[in-house]
């Protein structure tokens, strides 16, 4: 937990570290003025690193390669590193753009992903959860960090205990509650338990709110701003970076969730991407699965997260260090 | 946990607050208003389900008729249920393999990154699997490790080895599921450890190098001991996550072959949503809760995760 408070400095050190090692790298590569002896251990270490990177990245490439092949070619030539018998068929089947008889002839099940529907569902669920959860958590974090009131520490300690409750244990009772509320098979039902707060988000944001200099707040108060005004016009803007970080992490978690949406959704009305993908897999013909279609579906399901990652990679990577307990 | 509460709490003391006080003497009203939504969520979706889950474990309930109090019947049944004990064994097997391999690999990646490069690109690539869902990770490996056509088995065949039924053999299904989890989480774990490594003063390594220590020696005498608190926390987090495994198994083997991958969560899900036996499923959940609490407590004590040697 110490890490939370020391996070900003650590990020800085990480960056400086990166800068210097990059400089080192640049200085070491040209063989002409080689100051540092290239240690054989370093070469071995780089080889190990590259192997790990290949293991990390290869499955992503293999998804793409398989999705762009045809099933019959995959059976005949499974080891080619390039797509075999290049075809968009897998993607067409996923989007239901291929006539059913043709799809079945190509090894599909005729099942299709109503991609846009599931994409929309996932976007609604992940966005709703992120916006509400971060907003309400920020309000609570503000009350726990910058307001003076009598039961503050007691209330905060009570909130702390919720960290000890494993989410998995709450799923069954929460399912029953959502059922009693008549929200089964609705997007609201999927979102509901996560809308009001996440203990972690409160602790995370409180930590940063505490670090906003008191002088800035006082200046605003002297100017006649109310406490709630201070929250919106001082605390939130000055904590934009941590708020963005926790939002991105919340979004990823919400997007990738499978177990809870699987419990709540029964039909396409509330089916999110992860659940749809699981269903698509179970419909794939047993014995001779439609691998090209399945990998196309998997890639399609993963694409929004890949885009998010490409856009925010640096922020996400830097945020991991001080969010240890997420 | 203690550190958060030990944060300087009294920001607003001194004269400036008196000014604020005059304008708004009553922070309590605003505070109550602000924590109202969060409190609603806390009570409704954390505390109430906790109590309700424990209560349900003492009932028999199929959702159709009213829940009936049956005392400890579910627990008696649980203790005598071979599938439950098998599920515990399978889950433990999964956790040990998953966490064992994952921690070693992640530690290695973190140290490599620390000694070789601070490149954001490398760290991003390492983290990439964490961004996709468990379902995606599971399906990709379901294909890569397919018995006939998967590239994994093709390579084994090419090397002159026997094909392995990664997801279809009772021996291999759990190790395979564990390795899929390792693939998805190793980069994330590595970055957590990497952050911990950044907190170790660089001067220590310089001093050690002056004394003629090699990389291996520095790893054993500096990195490992000073990393212990972080490593302890990382272990606790990943073990808790690992115990709750469901997605990977559910979309690939669905618990089979026979009961080889029927982990506790899958068994709970089946009891609740296939048998509609919510009482028994709740009792199983309580068992899971108890196991998680015991394991966390033991780990916390063993790794002394709350203390640091960096003084």
Radius of gyration of chain B: 25 Å
Tell me what portion of residues of chain B adopts beta-strand conformation.
under 5%
With strands numbered from the N-terminus, the spatial order across the biggest sheet of chain B is 1-2
Global outline of chain B: globular
Number of DSSP strands of chain B?
2
Give a written overview of the molecule:
The complex is a heterodimer of chains A (326) and B (311). Chain A has 326 residues and is mainly α. Chain A has two domains: 1-14 and 37-111 and 284-326, no CATH class; 115-283, MetI-like fold (Orthogonal Bundle). Chain A is built from 16 helices and no strands. Chain A has helices at residues 2-28, 40-67, 71-76, 89-94, 100-105, 115-145, 152-161, 167-180, 187-195, 199-210, 214-222, 227-238, 240-256, 259-264, 273-283, 291-320. In chain A, helix 2 (40-67) packs across helix 16 (291-320) and helix 6 (115-145) crosses helix 10 (199-210). The radius of gyration of chain A is 25 Å and the shape is globular. Residues 1-32 of chain A have low confidence and may be disordered. Chain B has 311 residues and is mostly helical. Chain B has 14 helices and two strands. Chain B has a two-stranded antiparallel ribbon. Chain B is globular. Chains A and B meet through helix 1, helix 2, helix 6, helix 7 and helix 8 of A and helix 1, helix 2, helix 3, helix 5 and helix 6 of B.
């Amino acid at each position: 937990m110490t890490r939370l408070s020391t996070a900003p400095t650590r990020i800085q050190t990480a960056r400086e570290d990166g800068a210097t090692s990059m400089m080192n790298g640049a200085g070491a590569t040209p063989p002409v003025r080689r100051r540092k002896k290239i240690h054989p251990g370093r070469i071995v270490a780089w080889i190990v690193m590259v192997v790990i990177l290949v293991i990390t990245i290869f499955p992503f490439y293999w998804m793409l390669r398989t999705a762009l092949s045809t099933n019959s070619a995959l059976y005949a030539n499974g080891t080619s590193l390039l797509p075999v018998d290049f075809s968009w068929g897998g993607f067409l089947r996923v989007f239901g753009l291929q006539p059913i008889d043709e799809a079945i002839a190509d090894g599909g099940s005729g099942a299709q992903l109503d991609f846009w529907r599931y994409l929309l569902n996932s976007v609604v669920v992940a966005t709703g959860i992120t916006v509400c959860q971060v907003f309400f958590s920020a309000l609570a974090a503000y009350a726990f960090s910058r307001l003076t009131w009598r039961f503050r520490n007691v209330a905060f300690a009570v909130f702390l205990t919720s960290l000890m409750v494993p989410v998995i244990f709450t799923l069954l009772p929460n399912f029953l509650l959502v059922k009693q509320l008549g929200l089964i098979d609705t997007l609201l039902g999927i979102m509901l338990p996560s809308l009001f707060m996440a203990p972690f988000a409160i602790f995370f944001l409180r930590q940063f709110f505490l670090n906003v200099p008191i002088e800035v707040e006082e200046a605003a108060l002297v100017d006649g701003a109310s406490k709630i005004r201070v929250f919106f016009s001082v605390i939130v803007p000055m904590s934009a970076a941590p708020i963005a970080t926790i939002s991105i992490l919340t979004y990823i978690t919400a997007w990738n969730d499978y177990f809870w949406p699987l419990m709540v959704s029964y039909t396409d009305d509330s089916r999110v991407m992860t659940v749809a993908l699981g269903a698509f897999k179970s419909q794939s013909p047993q014995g001779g699965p439609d691998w090209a279609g399945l990998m196309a579906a998997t890639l399609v399901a993963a694409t929004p997260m890949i885009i998010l990652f490409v856009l925010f990679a640096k922020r996400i990577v830097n945020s991991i260090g001080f969010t240890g307990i997420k | 946990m203690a550190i958060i509460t030990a944060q300087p709490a009294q920001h607003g003391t001194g004269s400036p607050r008196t000014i604020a006080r005059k304008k708004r003497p009553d922070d309590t009203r605003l505070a109550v208003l602000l924590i109202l939504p969060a409190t609603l969520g806390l009570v409704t979706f954390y505390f109430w389900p906790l109590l309700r889950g424990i209560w349900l474990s003492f009932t028999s309930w199929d959702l159709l008729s009213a829940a009936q109090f049956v005392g400890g019947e579910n627990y008696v049944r649980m203790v005598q249920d071979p599938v439950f004990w098998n599920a515990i064994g399978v889950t433990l097997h999964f956790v040990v393999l998953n966490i064992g391999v994952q921690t070693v690999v992640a530690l290695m990646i973190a140290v490599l990154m620390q000694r070789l490069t601070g490149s954001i690109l490398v760290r991003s690539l390492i983290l990439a699997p964490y961004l996709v869902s468990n379902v995606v990770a599971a399906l990709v490996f379901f294909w890569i490790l397919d018995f006939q056509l998967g590239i994994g088995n093709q390579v084994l065949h090419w090397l002159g080895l026997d094909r392995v039924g990664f997801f279809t053999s009772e021996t291999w299904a759990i190790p395979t599921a564990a390795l899929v989890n390792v693939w998805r989480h190793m980069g994330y774990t590595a970055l957590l450890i990497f952050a911990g490594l950044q907190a170790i003063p660089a001067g220590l390594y310089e001093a050690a190098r002056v004394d003629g220590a090699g990389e291996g020696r520095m790893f054993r005498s500096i990195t490992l001991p000073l990393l212990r608190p972080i490593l302890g926390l990382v272990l606790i987090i990943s073990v808790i996550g690992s115990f709750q495994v469901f997605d990977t198994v559910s979309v690939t083997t669905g618990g089979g072959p026979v009961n080889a991958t029927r982990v506790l969560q899958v068994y709970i899900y089946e009891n609740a949503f296939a048998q509609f036996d919510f009482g028994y499923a709740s009792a199983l959940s309580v068992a899971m809760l108890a196991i998680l609490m015991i394991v966390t407590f033991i780990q916390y004590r063993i790794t002394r995760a709350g203390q640091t040697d960096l003084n």
